[in-house]
Design a protein that fits this description.
The chain has 836 residues and is of the alpha+beta class. The protein contains 25 helices and 24 strands. Strands 4-5-10-7-9-8 form a six-stranded mixed beta barrel. Strands 16-17-22-19-21-20 form a six-stranded mixed barrel. A four-stranded antiparallel beta sheet has the order 3-12-1-13.
Length: 836
């Protein structure tokens, strides 16, 4: 009863003091909104379970690798072959009640409506899965049926597909007759047999699958050789194997039994001719069993620390907001000392004095929670857009739901407990008879209240310094990465993506077609050179090759895999990569290789690499090539790491599908890309050409997307924290001037000057600023050590960055304290003494 009455009084107070409640609730909303928005990303990536049956029983063999494809003559601990899946599906030693397989990557397939051969093709994500995939996960159909064991027939015999609910609703327009209709995938007809239930988007949490196709249709979807038939001695390793662990087994027991079974599978594949040394090597391979209840993620390892950091930054911002709220509540409680003194004189106990103040704090918290959720609703898409530069992160299903609202409610409740109870307790303690004699808002506040406000303001300044210094470190990191030497001059060379597979072109026609397209592109106005390549630097996808190098004896267990780039004759000219020694290959030299300086230094040390012979194991036959040139190091993979060894192979010898045409032109990239698209269509009208284009400059921006996001968000949080700290300091100085008006009047009457009075106010501001700055510098050093792994070209603690952060807060403090100081200097002694 008393609680409801106090809340009713507090709600009426909102109408009487709208300014106070608006400022207090919006201050709290800033902290709650930012905290809730970042938590939505954390929850989507690291906490949310897959929408499947009993997710706690699911496991994946290995670490749940994404985007890996390799060929090797020995088993792999992270990815698996189709023959290994078949062996486990027949007998898993009682480890799994069900087993399924899916590639570690999706296929960006082209599809067309209703199966018309001439229809415009659009891109969709297509995932190959075994028939046991949906039963294993316990997914039910929204309409039609899902894939099952009957779809695991002979290769190419089951052209059926299941589409996601989102794909049906958006791409197919919620067509009621979608089940049973035909769409073209990679220009081949497939019958839609079902639509998956709404929440399910696949087992990879940061990737949205549109279409599921039986594994038996692998050749039709990938438009390449079969990966389902075992080949010896080399196998294709490209699958994640998923399993449902039997309820009676722990994951540790299941992993032990699984590895015993896998050793049998490895030995079966090796055959009777395996040596004792080979058996020993196989026995060293141990496959971990990873829980998969939260799904597989391609960015979880990359984004976990940055998201944890952002969540920590929002926590600091929330503390600043709560400290500001506590300061506001202290000021309001001090202004009500006369009222509280009267109530105490009438017999009210300390609990009765605290109740109305706590009720007002609860109202502020409630309003802050509502406003914070509204702010988070606006921030979540913005954060997801900033994350989009990190490959895969932009597809996270971040949203405001039960867990996010629970965090917002808990945050508001914690703010009331930490920063609402203390002001109420201090006000109740200071409500003495002196408050009755002083009368009114000019009453002298208790020392505890003033000291508490000073501590809160100092804490705000310190936290703001920490955030500003951290933002400065990330800005320096971003600047250093952008200024990295890429090893090339063609940063604005345009990459246009073509897809010969979807156009139905045979692999053997590719070399001549590439030559005709390059010739046509080089004749375009403004084009200086053009070349086909497997990938532009920093694009994020690259091939690896296991090699042998003449004259080099590898150490035991030394990794001999290097990056492999297929490059047309004018590739080095197009991208501005300098040839340091030797020359680039001639157009018809199929065995001529160029290596980068990192390759030459690793395998040839001080000797010349020119003339060296490199063997490449791409299958059962070893190919060999001779080094004719050494190129400058290029940041092919990462800006942070040292340039890796790279082999550049001539594109003329590549009989597969090279999909990137790099063009160097003096025209704008948009115009160049449009002209190249028309040139390609003129030679191969059926060739799908992407509307988007790449440049190394664009990939550079994507490569620093994580650092850019951190700099932006931490910088934004730091700016808000600095603003709140300034407002807190302004409130403290204004409160000081208001409560010490009589004292100031006496000082002025006794001959003190306005300058001395202003100095008095500035000294009041300097005290919390001083210890806040000291604490902030110490905190910045500690935070710098925590985030050191995310820095590049910046030390965990840099004096100039921390000093600049202190100067920013000091400048804000001077402005915040200046207004009350000027007001204090203009006080008239007679008026002050008359009304004090």
């Amino acid at each position: 009863m008393f609680l409801l009455r106090d809340l009713s009084v507090a709600l009426r107070a909102v109408g009487k003091n709208p300014g106070f409640f608006a400022v207090a609730s919006l201050t709290l909303a800033l902290g709650i909104g930012a905290n809730t928005a970042v938590f939505s990303l954390v929850e989507a990536l690291m906490l949310r379970s897959l929408p499947v049956a009993r997710p706690g029983e699911l496991a994946v063999l290995g670490p749940g690798t994404v985007g890996v494809f390799s060929r090797s003559d020995r088993p792999q601990p992270a990815v698996f072959s189709y023959s290994q899946y078949e062996a486990l599906s027949r007998d898993s030693k009682g480890v799994f009640s069900a087993v399924a397989a899916a590639p570690t990557f999706d296929t960006r397939a082209y599809w067309g409506d209703r199966g018309e051969a001439g229809a415009e093709l659009r891109r969709a994500s297509c995932q190959l899965v075994t028939g046991s995939y949906f039963p294993l996960l316990g997914i039910r159909p929204f309409r039609g049926r899902l894939l099952d064991s009957s779809d695991d027939g002979s290769q190419g015999a089951n052209p059926v597909a299941v589409v996601s609910y989102q794909f049906w609703a958006t791409r197919l327009g919620s067509a009621p007759d979608a089940v049973g209709s035909t769409i073209r995938i990679q220009n081949a007809p497939f019958t839609i047999v079902g639509i998956a239930e709404r929440p399910f988007r696949g087992h990879t949490v940061d990737f949205r699958t549109d279409i599921w196709v039986p594994m038996s249709m692998q050749r039709s979807v990938t438009l390449g050789p079969s990966r389902l038939e075992p080949t010896r001695p080399y196998e294709t390793y490209w699958l994640n194997i998923l399993g449902r662990v039997r309820p009676e087994m722990s994951f540790e027991q299941a992993e032990t039994a699984l590895n015993a079974r896998l050793q049998e599978v490895f030995l079966e594949h090796a055959g009777d001719g395996i040596t004792d040394e080979g058996r020993s090597d196989l026995a060293k391979i141990r496959v971990q069993l990873t829980p998969m209840g939260r799904g597989i993620s391609r960015v979880r390892n990359t984004a976990t620390r940055p998201l944890a950091l952002l969540w920590g930054a929002t926590g600091l911002l929330l503390l600043v907001a709560c400290a500001n709220l506590g300061s506001l509540l202290l000021a309001r409680a001090a202004g009500r000392q006369h009222e509280l003194g009267v109530r105490q004189a009438l017999g009210a106990g300390r609990g009765n004095l605290m109740r109305p103040l706590l009720a007002e704090a609860a109202v502020v918290a409630g309003m802050g929670m509502v406003a914070g959720c509204a702010l988070a609703y606006w921030l979540v898409p913005l954060l997801r857009g900033w994350l989009a530069g990190i490959r895969g992160a932009g597809s996270l299903d971040a949203r405001l739901a039960g867990p996010e609202f629970a965090v917002a409610a808990a945050t508001g409740g914690l703010a009331v407990l930490l920063f609402g109870v203390a002001p109420a307790a201090l006000a109740a303690r200071d409500a003495v008879s002196a408050g009755l004699r002083a009368g009114g808002p000019a009453a002298t506040a208790g020392r505890g209240s003033v000291r508490a406000r000073s501590v809160l303001v100092g804490g705000q300044c310190g936290l703001a310094v920490v955030l500003l210094a951290t933002a400065g470190l990330f800005l320096r990191t971003l600047s250093e990465l952008r200024a990295s030497d890429l090893g090339l001059a063609g940063i604005h060379a345009v990459g246009v993506r073509v897809d010969p597979r979807a156009g139905g072109f045979a692999p053997e026609t590719q070399p001549s077609m590439r030559a005709r397209i390059v010739e046509r592109a080089q004749g375009l106005p403004g084009v200086e050179s053009a070349a086909f390549t497997s990938s532009l630097p920093l694009r994020g996808n690259f091939g690896m090759s296991t090699v042998s190098v003449s004259g080099y004896t590898p150490a035991e267990n030394e990794e001999m895999s290097v990056i492999e780039v297929w490059a047309g004759p004018a590739y080095f000219e197009t991208l501005g990569i300098h040839i340091l020694q030797g020359r680039a290959p001639e157009p018809r030299e199929l065995d001529a290789l160029v290596v980068n300086r990192a390759f030459a230094e690793r395998f040839y040390q001080d000797a010349s690499a020119l003339g060296g012979v490199i063997g490449h194991h791409g299958g059962a036959i070893e190919r060999k090539g001779r080094i004719v040139g050494v190129a400058a190091n290029v940041r092919q993979v990462s800006l942070r790491d040292a340039p890796p060894p790279i082999i550049y192979r001539p594109a003329a010898g590549y009989e597969g599908f090279l999909q990137t045409l790099a063009v160097r032109s003096s025209a704008a990239p948009e115009r160049t890309a449009a002209a190249v698209r028309e040139a390609v269509k003129g030679i191969a009208p059926a060739m799908p050409v992407a509307r988007e284009f790449d440049t190394v400059a664009l990939h550079l921006e994507r490569a620093v997307a994580l650092e850019r996001m951190l700099a932006r968000l931490v910088g934004a949080f730091a700016a808000v924290a600095a603003l709140l700290a300034s407002l807190g300091l302004f409130g403290l100085c204004s409160y000081t001037v208001r409560t010490r008006t009589r004292e100031i009047g006496v000082r002025l009457a006794l001959g003190s000057t306005g300058g001395r009075v202003r100095a008095l106010v500035f000294r009041q501001a300097a005290i919390p600023l001083g210890y806040g700055a000291v604490a902030g510098i110490a905190g910045a050093g500690a935070v710098g050590q925590v985030v050191s792994g995310l820095l590049h070209g910046a030390e965990p603690f840099e004096w100039e960055v921390s000093a600049l952060a202190v100067l920013v807060i000091a400048a804000c403090s001077v402005i915040a304290a200046g207004v009350p100081a000027l007001r204090a200097g203009r006080i008239q002694p007679a008026e002050a003494l008359r009304h004090a």
